[in-house]
Amino acid sequence: SSGINAEWPLRPGMSLVILFVLYLLTLSQCCKIASSVPPAVSMCRNCTELPKHLIQCEPVLDLEGNRTFLDKYGYGCVEMGGENYGEVKMTPVVCYPLEHFTCVHDPENSVPRDRTQKEIKDELLFLSTFTEPCIKYSGHYFQSTLIMSILLGIIGVDRFCLGWTGIGVGKMLTLGGLGIWWLIDIILLITGNLTPNDKSNWERLY
Fold first, then answer.
1. How far apart are CA 159 and CA 139, in angstroms?
2. Residue 196 to residue 189: CA distance in whole angstroms
3. How wide is the angle at C-alpha 124 spanned by C-alphas 119 and 126, nearest 5°?
4. Which residues share a beta bridge with 188?
5. Which of 2, 108, 104, 122 has its CA nearest to residue 50?
6. The sheet that has 126-127: what strands, in order across it?
7. How far is CA 193 from CA 33, 62, 185, 188, 205, in A?
8. How far apart are CA 122 and CA 47, in angstroms?
9. How does pLDDT run across 116-155, given as a tens digit for each residue?
């Protein structure tokens, strides 16, 4: 009828609802094309800003003394392990978002990697803003190694298990240096001066 205004404006609450729905639609579309949208105009978060539960990270990279790589790219471990917290080095790690989740990738944060490790696209890889300790574990337990050294160290079994093959052969042929070498290795284990040859840390019991 003539008493009804066809151009009656929307209520303020309805306007907010419509704007919120439009925002969600825009955000969803952004996340689908995030890898091709520059961070400056994207509404999605930068990959380096994602929380840890939304990303997957590779183990720390053992550079095996290659300091040139560390100086050039800013990540990796020149030395692995350490007997106390002060001796352990820290390094960023290579990360990527979880499957079916995308983020805005910064080309300046690209990292070199071994492409055979994981089937992950290069544009999804980034360097973490947090650091991880330069330690690795390879299945060696201090307690079992100490027991093995006491019981079978006379024939070099402890040295073989820790990866010191050459020394183990010498220890076996000399029957633990007639007992002297056997005793020395037990002392070295207890004092922390005999560790796995691959520079891995002792496995934790908890």
1. 15
2. 10
3. 110
4. none
5. 104
6. 55-57, 94-97, 126-127
7. 54, 21, 9, 5, 20
8. 13
9. 455 667 677 888 888 888 888 888 888 999 999 999 999 9
